[in-house]
Amino acid sequence: MPARTEASVGSAASHNYKKTFFEAHPGLKGKVVVHHAIEQQVLKRYPGLFSADEMHSLENLRGIPKGDINSRVHLSQIRVEWNRFYDANPNPSTERWSENMWREILEAFPSAELRGPGDSSALDRIEGALGQSLPADLRSFLLESDGLSDEYGTDVVWSAERILGDNLSFRGDEQYRSLYMSFDSLIFFGDNGGGDQFAFVRLPERNEVFVWDHETDSRNLVAPTLESYVRSALESDGEDWYR
Hints:
The longest helix is centred in the N-terminal third of the chain and has 21 residues, at about 70-90. The chain contains 10 helices and 9 strands. By secondary structure, it is α+β, with helices and mostly antiparallel strands. It is globular and about 55 Å long. It folds into 2 domains: about 1-110, no CATH class; about 110-243, SMI1/KNR4-like, CATH 3.40.1580.10. A hairpin with a 5-residue loop joins strand 4 and strand 5.
């Protein structure tokens, strides 16, 4: 089985992070404050742990709505969490950052329904049963919250139990085999509440999110990262944001 590596940053071509963010999300101009999930003072507090290219990469940038949410979340709750993190982790490793990243994202969406932390042994069972590794970001998310629902009850991210059960069902169902292209290269992990499902391609391994259209059997790329997918789903107000 391929080795897993935790990752929450990419590599920026430019350190103009606001330009990077708004080129990727032009519809958010004037609506959000651009925030670093791993904040910039980390470069000075923990020299060598992250590079400036990683710090200013799109994967590390968050758009927090202006106004009350920015004041309450960005300037208050997140500040408290970071201060606690610095006090508790004088010499952290990169593995500690992923759970902090997801907490920050989800706190920006108070209507999202979080669950208790997942069990790493349950994630290992998924990988063993499917014969494929989970993407690092999906694994880190599930360890923080074993699934995620939006305000309408849509399972944006499934629990570990459902990921295992539904993927085994889709791969093993004889009728599905006669109706659709093979699902063996995909790991489904969420849905839109209307039949379409979201997946990672595992053969070959890719970190983008794809949607499977249950009516046409098409599989299309809809988000460059799990974070982008989660954010788009929670911001959609129940709409099929990917169409």
